[in-house]
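As described in the Methods, two query proteins were run sequentially through the folding procedure within a single session, without resetting any intermediate state between them. The first query and its resulting structure tokens are shown here.
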Amino acid sequence: MNNKKNFFNLRFFKNGQTAFEYILLLAVVLSIVLIGFNKYLPRTHSAANVFFDKTYNGIVGNPPGTLN
């Protein structure tokens, strides 16, 4: 057998494994963030609408024709 370097040496596999692990980690974090947006964004949207309506009435005043 000759002592030439193999095309697939150990360092090549370690670099590939590290890149693959980072891609998996990124995919997990991204999926958690997207699921969180999907779950909590409607709640914040409705809460922001209620807050805006109350603040708008406090600044501008009640609409015409309403008491108080």
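Immediately afterward, the second query was submitted; its sequence and tokens are:
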Amino acid sequence: MMRKADVVSESIIPDDQISFLKGKLGFLAVFSIFGLWVGLISSQSLMDLFIILTSFLSLLLLLKTKKGRLLNQISKPIYVSILWVLILLLGFYAQAEKGASVQVLLGDFVWILHLPLWFYLWHFLRVDVRWAYSALWILLIGSLFAVMVYFIGFDPLHQTWSDRAQNLSVFWRSGGLFSNAMALAQSYGPLAMILLPLSLFYLYRGIQAFSFWDSRKEKPKKKQEASKLLRQFFPSRLSWLLPLTFFLTSLAVVFTFTRGVWLAMTLSSLLGGFMLSRRWGFTFLFGFFIAGFVLMMAWPKFQERAFQVFNTEKSYDSERVVLWKTNWFIFKESPWLGIGYGENKRRLREFYDRLHVPEGQFEGHAHNQFLHFLAGTGLLGLLFYLGWCFYFLKINYQIYKRLEIESGVSRDASIANPTADATSTLTPVSVNKELSLFFLGLFLAQISFHIGSLTESNFIIAKNRMLLVGLWSFILYFYHSHSSKSSLSTT
């Protein structure tokens, strides 16, 4: 069992300067972080409330502690983000026509203010393993609800049993607590990817421990055997809670029937497998092939959904292609600054008419985040977005590699030989190993999010966007707070 003293990350603020956080302000800090997490998992309104609360608390800490110099660590990203917004505003006022509202742009980009504030807040929180238990239980409950919604055939938050027959007469998809299948998949898919590497670690460690147990010549008494075997397989709460949460979260995504996220999770999982070792990569490849074949043969609904891309009568994929072509046409009209952020959605019918698209065609965002930026903000806006995403992938990867090296575990052995760590306490090496796998999961979550962007404008959806921004703030905090340390572990 992990002890209370086992810390995942430490604050770089001296104890005497954060002692006041042990009182009401400390409770408020932890409460706001977990409230935000619950909102990201379940409710837009709750998320908005705690976004305001966490940012207000960060401002309060900034004024009370006078540690604004911490923000100097991320001065370059702050300056780049300001330049990005200025260019978007320039493009908007230069290209947007009558009726356009800049509030859409400002509302979608207010996250640029929250990011440095959350980065600042992380410095005042001592993050230990107990946080993981609570966070996992919250995600597990959200995933379990999404799975339940699929099987009962109606959304109990917004529907009644009488709606079930109508739901089942069409292609029923679970929207979980979001009541929106696509938005749920775009958030829960990356969350599942965060858990994937550590789930493999704990499960493989349990299998190795079981093999060692089974190979022993002396057997204990039968009454003791079950409990001792269970303790060997699951030596800590995380060793069973994390894989279980990963399984249910992945299952929730499956029941959304969002093919773009299915593809994103598959490709990012393969990438993660090959980053661990070629053996794991090819194991994943073979496993996905077998799983896909079995699902296609045994589950008609899965097969129908997979092949809808080839059936325009039962799918809106053909309408999505029209959206892509139209947004590409919009980009060619204003290639450098676009026609104004959000205007490619508001003025879509105007461009449909120019392309002779008939009435009744679906109207909305571009269903491709990169095309959405390209049409609305031009090449300059897209390049800023791509550069921003690449920056966080880069520093995330650097953290992962540094932790992997400091754990003293070779690339091929990072998961394949975990039995040495199946102990009741954590060592600095084992902490770094698990941390490295956690940051590998964060890296894969971002990859999954960006692949999912090919079939959905997920960054303009607040729940999806703020989840990614929250991950960015923690990655940025960890990168800078440990950049000058020789070891990322704590004692």
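Residues 1-22, 409-414, 416-429, 484-491 have pLDDT under 50 and may be disordered. We note this only descriptively and draw no conclusion about the first query from it.
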